[in-house]
Amino acid sequence: MELNHKNKLNKSNKPSGHEQVLEFLEKLEHPLKQEIEEVRKIILSSNDQITEHIKWNAPSFCVNNQDRITFNFHGKEGFRLVFHCGSKKTDYADKDRLLQDDSGLLEWATGDRATLTFTSAKDVEDKRGKLIEVVTKWIEVTKDV
Question: Coil, helix or strand for 143?
Fold first, then answer.
């Protein structure tokens, strides 16, 4: 009986999304690692419905188990956040932008996908308030997409 109980525990011992992200960040080698961790904290603090896990080999933030914002560490100019509606193209891709970006931070690839780039600690600090605003708006407009 004891053995079966342990086996059941081991099968369900998969790390939570939060634990996955912590493990990923612990191993991450990036010149802006502290800035990445700070942006993560800002995103998580902006909305209590946001959860996180690893998707596309980077931390990704979800609402209702739907990926909405994902880190991208490619490139030499820093790191990016990708604001999206999941991996599949939506009906909004070829239409106007999903939200009115008064912050001016987002670079739009399609109507339903944009990026925001960070290049330094000062850049993160300068964008902090507007990042919270953009994340809040993005979560609101994409919750039913």
Answer: coil
Give yes or no for residue 91 having a pLDDT over 70: no
In Å, what is the CA distance from 83 to each residue of 12, 27, 107, 125? 31, 24, 10, 19
* Region of 86 on the Ramachandran plot (φ > 0 left; ψ -120 to 50 alpha; else beta): left
Query: What is the DSSP-derived secondary structure letter of residue 73?
Result: -
Helix (H, G, I), strand (E, B) or coil at 45: helix
pLDDT band at 98 (very low <50, low <70, confident <90, very high): confident
- Higher pLDDT residue, 68 or 5? 68
Task: Specify the residue for token string 């099968």.
Answer: 11
Q: Spell 83-101 as b/e; 16+ CB within 10 A means b.
A: bbbeeeebebeeeeebbeb
